[in-house]
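Budget justification aside, the reviewers requested a transparent look at the raw inputs and outputs of the sequence design task funded under Objective 1. We therefore reproduce one unedited record. The lines immediately below are the structure tokens for a 351-residue chain.
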């Protein structure tokens, strides 16, 4: 995301503040008749306001385990509006847009982050000073499956940053004494590893993304889904009972419901180690201690970074994995072997 709005693009033809001043009142009016849904991420409460039941039904299942009761004084730490053009009218015009990242373009300044889809079908705004965000879609039906698995898109990193948390692209599995942060390259076997942990009775806390407090290295889940490939589902047929009623993602993965009980724990999951899965054709290949300095640097610079990250986030990601022991876990065709490798890591940590 650019911190300075480029003058060659349509978004720079009007100030970000002017765009926000027009967009937020329109969203407030559209959502005014509906009570907010309150979410909890750690000790933080976020009020999410929808413009109708269709948009609520499209994205609320992702947060089913993060729902929070209203605080006694009805206070919240952040507020997000989710509105659709078919209910609320089109978003404020941003002028012509040249795509920056794939079909999106993002600009920002010291206060506002704005991302707009090149086809005009979506707009996201985050106001750092007011800790409020806006996620505008063409319609509830136009919200794609990836956004149903993890809603808020470009708003989410900015929201977490405002709360002192950092979004981490990783999975987390839990144990009685803390969690394992599982991170690696695309197709490294991260999701397979996280779901195989359930064979040890270890709950899967998160799959694609998790919020971590860099000061305490405590992880908090952000969604109730994992996205499993066809191969993963074939290796673990027990997951069929946990498939969500959602279409496949564009890359052919299916949504799997995560474990709900641990997600209700507001104190989160302290991290004990970084686990790097690596694809292997062998069954029962040994777990290896990784080069901690090199692996942590790679993790912070690449594996753990989410879309919408800023340069400051790489430093904070380094704080997340600082001093964590690092293990390489071969991921072969047998999920029981993967689970056994995780058990070996836990025994080493407990020794």
């Amino acid at each position: 995301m650019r911190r300075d709005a480029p003058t060659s693009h349509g978004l720079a033809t009007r100030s970000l503040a002017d765009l926000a001043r027009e967009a937020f009142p329109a969203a407030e009016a559209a959502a005014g008749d509906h009570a907010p849904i309150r979410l909890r991420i750690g000790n933080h409460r976020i009020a999410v306001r929808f413009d109708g039941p269709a948009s609520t039904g499209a994205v609320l299942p992702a947060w089913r385990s993060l729902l929070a009761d209203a605080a006694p004084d009805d206070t919240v730490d952040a507020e997000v509006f989710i509105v659709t053009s078919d209910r609320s009218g089109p978003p404020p015009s941003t002028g012509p847009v040249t795509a920056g990242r794939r079909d999106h373009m993002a600009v920002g300044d010291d206060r506002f982050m704005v991302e707009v889809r090149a086809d005009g079908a979506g707009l996201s705004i985050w106001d750092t000073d007011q800790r409020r965000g806006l996620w505008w879609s063409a319609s509830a039906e136009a919200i794609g499956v990836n956004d149903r698995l993890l809603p808020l898109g470009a708003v989410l990193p900015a929201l977490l940053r405002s709360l002192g948390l950092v979004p981490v692209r990783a999975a987390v599995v839990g144990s009685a004494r803390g969690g394992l942060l599982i991170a690696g390259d695309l197709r490294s076997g991260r999701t397979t590893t996280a779901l195989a942990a359930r064979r040890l009775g270890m709950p899967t806390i998160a799959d694609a993304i998790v919020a971590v407090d860099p000061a305490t290295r405590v992880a908090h889940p952000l969604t109730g889904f994992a996205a499993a490939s066809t191969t993963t589902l074939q290796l673990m047929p027990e997951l069929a009972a946990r498939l969500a009623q959602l279409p496949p993602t564009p890359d052919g993965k299916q949504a799997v419901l995560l474990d709900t009980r641990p997600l209700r724990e507001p104190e989160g999951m302290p991290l004990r180690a970084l686990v790097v899965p690596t694809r292997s054709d062998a069954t029962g290949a040994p777990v290896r201690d990784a080069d901690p300095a090199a692996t942590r640097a790679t993790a912070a610079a690449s594996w753990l970074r989410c879309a919408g990250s800023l340069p400051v986030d790489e430093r904070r990601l380094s704080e997340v994995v600082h001093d964590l022991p690092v293990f390489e876990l071969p991921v072969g065709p047998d999920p029981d072997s993967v689970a056994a490798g995780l058990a070996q890591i836990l025994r080493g940590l407990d020794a």
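Residues 166-350 form a domain with the Rossmann fold fold (CATH 3.40.50). The mean pLDDT is 85. Computational costs for records of this kind are itemized in the attached budget.
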